[in-house]
Amino acid sequence: MRRALGTRGCCWALLLLPPLLLPAAGASPHRPRLQPGGRSGSLAAADTACKNRPLDLVFIIDSSRSVRPEEFEKVKIFLSEMIDTLDVGERTTRVAVMNYASTVKVEFPLRTYFDKASMKEAISHIKPLSAGTMTGLAIQTAMDEVFTEEMGTRPATFNIPKVVIVVTDGRPQDQVQDVAASARTAGIEIYAVGVDRADMQSLRVMASEPLDEHVFYVETYGVIEKLTSKFRETFCAVDMCAPGRHECDQICVSNNTSYVCECYEGYTLNPDKKTCSATDICAPGRHDCAQVCLSNGGSYSCNCYEGYTLNPDKKTCSAVDMCAPGRHDCEQVCMRDDLFYTCDCYQGYTLNPDKKTCSRAITSSLVTTEESCKCEAIAALQDSVTSRLEALSTKLDEVSEKLQAYQGRQQVV
Question: Residues 324, 330, 336, 338: is their CA dihedral positive or negative?
Answer without folding.
Answer: negative
